[in-house]
Amino acid sequence: MIRSMTGFARRERQGPYGTLSCELRSVNHRYLELSLRLPDDLRGLENDARQVISGLLRRGKVDAGLYLRGAPAAAASIEINTALLDQVLARAADVRARAGAGAAPVDPLDVLRWPGVIREAERDVTPLATAAMDLLRETAEELNESRGREGRRIRDMLVQRCETLRELVSIVRARLPEVSARIRGRIAERVAQLGVQVDPERLEQEIALLAHKMDVEEELDRLGSHVTETLQVLDSTEPAGRRLDFLMQEFNREANTLSSKSQDAETTRAAVDMKVLIEQMREQVQNVE
């Protein structure tokens, strides 16, 4: 099953730590390029988060973000560094004693503003980290499902175009005897217009050489083979984007050769229709993982 490289997923969960949300966006890219944003408390999870995402996604430019907001006020607490506070107060008392009675009293708030006197209590972030990784996995799986749904739509479109290509190949192949007979008749008519005698054997040789130059059986065989290979790749369980991109190049090469060899209006028209179908397929294949 093929997957698209375009998708979006978002999930949230709440707990004592507040509201934790995760967003994943992906667009097409040649490789897997991951941009990750984490809250300060979860910076240590970066490697694990990258492994989770890269384990589910093979290609695409992925923008991932974990956000934490709205932590309950009761959960926040502060601590006072009493040792440092005692030192600051002692030094303030010494300064006041040296300054004399005219010195202003020490403002407690000024003391609390002294760097290091107040510190945030250390929190156990293990529950938050566990919840964040679970949420990230769920969101990445949802993104993968979204990409899979889009991939199924792309597959249906590619299958339809492949069947149309196969029909066009059959139409061109069916016209080959008529085209060959028309070429032979056209040469015979031109010889007759010249009013000269020609060696029949030499004439047959020239007709054979011309028919060989204009023969498109090989191109039609390759086009049919590419259609079969494309349908097989679409049902593969492995990422198929690169393989499909290569097949589109081969499709285009054979269609161009068919068009350049064509000596028949219907064949030329069929070759143009093939090119249109191949271009439509190529545009969609650019978005396949």
Question: What would you note in describing this structure?
Answer:
- The protein has helices spanning 46-56, 82-99, 108-112, 126-194, 200-213, 217-234, 241-261, 265-285, and strands at 7-15, 18-27, 32-37, 60-69, 78-80, 118-120.
- The chain is of the alpha+beta class and 289 residues long.
- It folds into 3 domains: 7-73 and 126-147, Ribosomal Protein S5, domain 2 (2-Layer Sandwich); 78-120, no CATH class; 150-285, Butyryl-CoA Dehydrogenase, subunit A, domain 3 (Up-down Bundle), CATH 1.20.140.
- The strands form 2 sheets. Strands 1-2-4-3 form a 4-stranded mixed sheet, with helices on one face. The chain has a two-stranded antiparallel ribbon with strand order 5-6.
- Strand 1 and strand 2 form a beta hairpin.
- The longest helix has 69 residues, at 126-194.
- It is rod-shaped and about 135 Å long.
- It starts with 6 loop residues before the first strand and ends with a helix.
CATH architecture of the largest domain: Up-down Bundle
CATH C-level category of the largest domain: Mainly Alpha
SS-derived structural category: alpha+beta
Number of separate strands:
6
Largest sheet descriptor? 4 strands, mixed
Question: Any idea what the shape is?
Answer: rod-shaped
Would you list the SSEs in sequence order as H and E?
EEEHEEHHEHHHHH
Q: Count every helix, treating DSSP H or I runs of 4 or more residues as helices.
A: 8
Q: How many structural domains in the coordinates?
A: 3
Report the β-strand fraction as a percent range: 5-15%
Helix content: 55-70%
The separation of the N and C termini measures 10 Å
Spans where pLDDT lies below 50 across 5 or more residues: none
Give me the side-by-side strand order of the main sheet: 1-2-4-3
Mean pLDDT: 84
Radius of gyration: 37 Å
Oligomeric form: single chain
